[in-house]
Amino acid sequence: MPECFSIDRAALESAHRELLSTVHPDRFVAESALQKRLAMQAATQANEALRCLRDPLLRAAYLCELHGAPIAEQGRGTVDPAFLEEQMRWRESLDEARASHDAQALQTLRGDVAQCASQTLAQLGQLLDVDHQYDQAARCLSRLMFIERVTQQLDDAIDALD
Predict the structure, then answer these.
(1) With respect to CATH, is domain 76-161 assigned 1.20.1280.20?
(2) Which residue in 6, 80, 85, 133 has a CA-CA distance of 20 to 30 Å to 20?
(3) pLDDT reported for residue 77
(4) In this predicted model, what pLDDT tens digit does every residue of 16-50 receive, in sequence order?
(5) Mean pLDDT of all residues in the chain?
């Protein structure tokens, strides 16, 4: 697979199937214990790679780390004040909607957060695939990870009202 954020899902699945066809443990039944163990490890690595590449957040984190910008180190930089303000607004809106059991407010907020997630994901793709700005991409990914947590909390709050 090419080393990029934007991937062809069908090509990814095809490459995974092709790789598994060569390393699957069933192909090594008659081999030594060492060969069987190595085949099992290779198949496990192939499955883990597929899991990572299927998930945009994990894929972006992998690319950032590969290029010397691990996500864990991004918290030490300057925080975007506008994003901090947006986070506080989301939290307050979520708390108010939960407290008042306002499903419509939760759905509206969910739409706003989803739109922000979509824009941030597009920005992340630009930073990784076009600009090759991995430090900035890591900071963008940190924002997206926060957005995903808020999305999950919103989904949980919506489900709790049903």
Answers:
(1) yes
(2) 6
(3) 54
(4) 999 999 999 999 999 999 999 999 999 999 999 99
(5) 94
SS (HEC) of the chain: CCCCCCCCHHHHHHHHHHHHHHHCHHHHCCCCHHHHHHHHHHHHHHHHHHHHHHCHHHHHHHHHHHCCCCHHHHHHCCCCHHHHHHHHHHHHHHHHHHHHCCHHHHHHHHHHHHHHHHHHHHHHHHHHHHHCCHHHHHHHHHHHHHHHHHHHHHHHHHHHHC
Separation of alpha carbons 79 and 101, rounded Å: 32
- Please state, in angstroms and rounded to a whole number, the distance separating the CA atoms of residues 130 and 63: 13
